[in-house]
Amino acid sequence: MKKQFLNLGFLVAMLSAFAFVSCTESGGDPVTPPEETEDRWITVAGALMGTNPGDGNGGTQVFSVTKEDAKNPEVSINVYENGYGVKSNRTARLQSSEDGNTLFNIAYTGDNGGEFSKYDVNGGEVFTQSDVSVNISQYASTSPRWMKLFDGDKTGIAVNVANIQANNAPGTANPDAPFAYYRGVATVLSLDLQNTLISAFKQYELPLTEEEEAAGHTIFRLDGSVLNKAGNKLIIGTWMRKYDVATGTVESDFERLGTKSVVVDYPSLENPTIITSSVAHGDCSGYRSFNSFLAEDGSIYQATQRDPNGSHILKILSNNVYDDSYVFSLDAALGVEGVYVDSWRYAGDNKAIVLYTHDGVEQGYIAYVDLATKTATKVDIPYDADLDFGQYQGFVVDGDDVYVAVTPTGKDGNIYIIDSKTGLASKGAKLVNQPGNHYIGIF
């Protein structure tokens, strides 16, 4: 298989050409409600156990069926016995094209970590890999976080933060200087999904306020990129960390700052700035899945994790700042405490599906959410104590239908199809499981 590795000299020349083309383009694509796609494939993904049940560290298998079969509870799918193994040493970071006919992947860790590849979906276990791939590990590590933008399958954004250290750490330029901050080097990289090449990348530090940095706060991870409606800014979610400035150790329990996102110019990826919500105090990077979504009115909705007051849905206005007048606590809406959003998906018309857990339980649930009325209800399906959505990645939104894979770890489950207009769920195809494994998404 032919691989494409870009050296820096070629990349600089390519970026110059990219900048010239980009300045001739207009803003982002119009935001429209999800449309039903005829004859699309529904691809199911399963994660294999590595050492411990549910860890997903044994690789990823995929298998595709028609929509009719996906909706049929008489159909059985066994991705582990009949599926195709996509490249990844651990759980793959998968994305699919809007029509379901192409699968995109960046291998996560291992010898091929950071290698981007794409596959034609042909039904069943037949996935044809493109003969050209590109490896981004030299820019964004062998474990990059990445998302496909909702721009007509044109672009993927990979991000990373590396080498977090104090400004006066041994080996730095001024090891005898007074302590001022902990910072890492952030990488933001765009992938041309159609031509399978790196189209731009930037690296920079992301300073917080002087007071925040003096206390040991820093941005530990980036993820969950989303393009604004104007098509000129990327909003990137953050995961925060705090160091004990006296000892240099990571603090596990600390008073959190307001939720922060990084905003960069697009497509240049330059001029990073940080915006802060005073409504919530959790992280907004998500985990292996989309975490911010552009709605039809130009607002961006974003979920939080590790929030001391339970997960919130935040709103970012079209001028790329948080709307602190929009307060949507999932604790309050669901009537429980300590809600944690594992994964979620915007389904159009201010409706969304949220996979979550909460204090006092170790299992996952599904909620139907109305972002306009700030209400949420638990979806009525059979639940199991071993249901865990912690590694969940993929939903398919096809017209009014939202496809979700629901399998407790090591137990059989089903595809469920949730009506985005009503929140009612119907049981689809059976998902045959194996001990220690679980299904992680529909693509």
Molecular structure report:
The protein is mainly beta and 443 residues long. It has 2 domains: 1-30 and 134-327, no CATH class; 40-91 and 338-443, no CATH class. Helices cover 8% and strands 40% of the residues. The protein has helices spanning 8-22, 67-70, 79-82, 137-140, 210-214, 330-334; strands spanning 2-4, 41-47, 60-66, 76-77, 84-86, 93-96, 102-106, 115-121, 127-129, 132-135, 145-148, 155-166, 182-192, 197-204, 217-227, 233-242, 260-265, 273-276, 292-294, 300-303, 313-316, 340-348, 351-357, 365-370, 375-378, 396-398, 401-406, 413-419, 425-431, 438-442. Strand 26 (396-398) and strand 27 form a beta hairpin. The model is unreliable at 1-27 (pLDDT under 50).
* N/C terminus separation: 25 Å
| Residues in helix, % | under 10%
Question: What's the total number of strands?
Answer: 30
How does the overall form come out from the CA principal axes? globular
Could you say how many structural domains there are in total? 2
> Mean of the pLDDT scores?
92
**Number of continuous helical runs:** 6
Taking pLDDT < 50 over at least 5 consecutive residues as the criterion, the unreliable ranges are 1-27
Radius of gyration: 21 Å
SS strand fraction? 35-45%
Structural class: mainly beta
The major β-sheet equals: 6 strands, mixed
Keywords: Signal
Protein name: DUF4374 domain-containing protein
Organism: Algoriphagus jejuensis
Signal peptide: 1-19
